[in-house]
Structure formats: C-alpha cells, structure tokens
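Standup notes, protein team

Yesterday: finished cleaning the Nocardiopsis changdeensis set.
Today: DUF4433 domain-containing protein structure.
Blockers: none.

Input for DUF4433 domain-containing protein:
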Amino acid sequence: MTATETAFDEALGRYGVTRLAHFTPSLNLRHIIEDGRITSSRDLAENAPEYFSPTDRERFDGHPDKICCTFQYPNAYYLDQARRRPEYTNYPDWVCVLLSPVLVARPGALFSPRNAAAGRGSHLRAGLEGLESCFAERVGGYTRKHRHLAGAATDLQAEVLVPGPIDTSFITAVVVSGVEQAAQEFSRLRMFGLRPERFVWAVSPELFDKNELRRRIHEGVPIVPAPWTPAHDREGA
C-alpha cells in the first residue's frame, strides 16, 4: 500500500466509511455485468449509446469521464428527481451498487462536500483534503450532529467522482428496494447467463426513500441491508 493509499485508508477509518454507493437504473445492470465494469457517461455515449440515458447528459459537474459515488449511502435526492423524468416512466426500478471504498484513492478522483453539480463543479477538490471536506462539522447549511450515522457525509449529497471504468470486482453488493425486485433482477440476469450469484444481493427499501434515509442518518438509526438469496437456494440450504 502506498503512502497515499494508507492516508486515505486511515481517513476512511476515522469517518467510518466502509463502502461507496452508486445508483443506476436496473436496465443498466445487464450491461454492467456483461461488460464487466461500470463505465462513465462519456464512455457510454461513445461505446454503448443504447444504455446512455438523458440523465447522463446532464453532467453539470463538468467531468463526464468520472463515475458519481456517495459515501456509505446512496444519493436518494438524485434518485427522487430522476424517477420523475418521463423517460423513466416505464422503467421505474433502480439498483444501488455498493463499491469498495479503496476507489477514493484512485488517481484523478475528485471530492465535493456538496452535490458535485452545485456551482457547476466549483466545489470539487482532489486529494485527502477533498475527502476530509465531505465530513466537516459544517457544510453549507448543514451541521453534523453527534447522532449522525458514521460513514455518511455531512451533506448527504456529497460525492466522490471516481475515474472510470470501475471493474465489477470492486462491487461488494447489489441492493434493491424489495424482495420481488431482487427475484426479478436475479432471474433476468440468470436468463442471460450472467451468473448473478457471483454478487452479494441485499434488500433495503430505506436506501431508496429520500425522507426515510435522511431521517435515519440524522437520528442515528442504523440501516442494515437484509441479505437476499433466491428461494431455491434457501430451500436447498
């Protein structure tokens, strides 16, 4: 481990960050697994336009070569807005991909203590100071209270922009909003021969509910995604 990686690892430990989170429409999941990587919006536009959604075009942060991630919990504010878009009326399901936090040390990563699009990317900073700014006692109008859940940034929309692509080996879990969706996603991927059992699956409706997620983080109520396995696997256990 390099000195830079060690410094980031120690900082993540201080703040209680054990994972990063990335929201994506469930229709993208097949492409991610087939391709073996999570790609940036720029790469999607150039190489897989059929998976390039209108939300990918609105990269007001100015870094379409990077992948937006949040600390410990996903950006449910972004999801709430994205779900309202007409292009997702027939595709309402999303998944939360949890990723290894070591990605914050990737060269070129940028950090924003607020939504990275705020001020068209003017809050973005590189390096350890950039990471630390996301966990400051006060960020804009937000003050970090003593009950604030560990791992969550002070402003819940704080982001790290990770240079893409991100190999699927960095995925630590795939989280969905309910058991019915889990079964559907798993079956669909298995039908295409993509071996979804390679990944850890979990269910957590709280991660997909802006108000409930905010309440729990601010009040210090634990959020633990429930592990999920296919019914036939449970029966055979």
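Follow-up from PR in the comments: The longest strand covers residues 20-25.
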